[in-house]
Amino acid sequence: MTSSLVLVGNSKDGTINTFDLSGDRLTPLAVSEVGAPGLPLAVDARRDLVFAGTTKPFGVVVLKLDRASGTLSPIGRADIDGSAVYLKLSDDGSRLFWASYHQGVGGVLAVAEDGSLSPLGETISYPNLHSVQVSSDGAFAYYVCLHDDLVVQYSVDAETGLHPLDPPTVAAPAGSGPRHLIFSSDETSVYVNTEYSGEVLHYRRDTSSGRLAFVAAQTCMPTDRGLKHSRFGADPRAEGLIWGADLHLDESETRLYCSERNQATITALDIASHGVLGGVTAHSSVVAQPRGFAVLPNGDLLVASELDRVVGQYRPDVDSALTLVETFPAGLGAYWIEVIDR
User: Residue 214 sits in which domain range?
Assistant: First the structure.
């Protein structure tokens, strides 16, 4: 029976819930205090280290994971120039990339073997950076600029950090509000979901040059629930606007899931050969305001509610329509989920 640890970062109360996943069964293990709100997470499973972004003060806390108990203990921290909304660790664990939405900055931290952090290269600046991904070889990094509808592309030098590619940016559709991006496993496809238009964007990636090229867009939210196209600075709850949040591929990479917060749904899309976007297979209602979710090793989805102090475990059918298995207590503002092989 496979066994994993599942971490849930709670953005408002500065805690992390740890669960054991054995087979299909999720069991709460521990609640750990980080000491500051924020809590996007990045995990170094080799060293049992967890990095957590904080907003007050701006920084990254380094935590040591006890796999037996599931508890996390702070062992260090580093200051950064903004409140991180997204963290991404390079595959070799040597660099930690961060993006700050509210301060519009991002950068890279060098990670020592003991987990201590130090700045690497210059801080970058684009308005409302929302996420960052790094190629598996550590040679390229991509930041999403929600405000300007851009994906910003960089090469990465081990000593000097981020360097813009030529061209430095790739456009998303105007007014779409690109938010999160993920790679296919072969890193030839990049998928970006949009907060304002409720779409998923497909980019081709040249693995040699690192450059992206836009391919297509596909709606990834219910179109029959009265939601309207959103815009920067709007109140989506008050105005009934699209409020896209997160996206993930299943293990087979034949299905892509996207969450929308206002109507609390997760939509499943087919992925055809060569990463091509297919049609919608299912819309499923989930816990309120699902900002973050994860596909678990058994194929279930774990969905975090920003509002209700719960996470919900859902099981997909053949079309990836989701059925609730169980809900579990979480902290206030739960939104970031990481899964670690045990």
Answer: 3-341
- What would the two tokens of residue 67 be? 């796999």
pTM: 0.97
Structure tokens at 161: 């950090």
Instruction: Please count the helices (runs of H) and the strands (runs of E) in the chain.
Output: 1, 28
Cα separation of 18 and 27, whole Å? 9
């980019």: which residue's tokens? 203
CA distances (Å), 243 to each of 13, 140, 222, 266, 337, in order? Answer: 23, 29, 12, 12, 19
What is d(CA 200, CA 47) in angstroms, rounded to the nearest whole number? 34
Spatial distance between the Cα atoms of 180 and 168, rounded to a whole number of angstroms: 18
247, 200 contact by CB (below 8 A): yes
Tokens of 273: 């050969």
Q: What is the pLDDT of residues 316-336, one digit of tens each?
A: 999 999 999 999 999 999 999
For residue 220, give the nearest of 177, 286, 277, 272 by alpha carbon.
277
% of the chain beyond a pLDDT of 70 = 100
Mean pLDDT, residues 287-312? 97
3-state SS, residue 99: strand
CB-based burial label for 252 (10 Å; 0-12, 13-18, 19+): exposed
Q: What is the pLDDT of residue 2?
A: 80
CATH number, domain at 37?
Answer: 2.130.10.10
Question: Per-residue pLDDT for 36 more than 90?
Answer: no
pLDDT in tens, 134-190: 999 999 999 999 999 999 999 999 999 999 999 999 999 999 999 999 999 999 999
| Burial of residue 25, with CB atoms counted within 10 A of its CB: 0-12 exposed, 13-18 middle, 19 or more buried | middle
How far is the first Cα of the chain from the last one, in angstroms, to the nearest whole number? 11
Number of structural domains found in the chain: 1
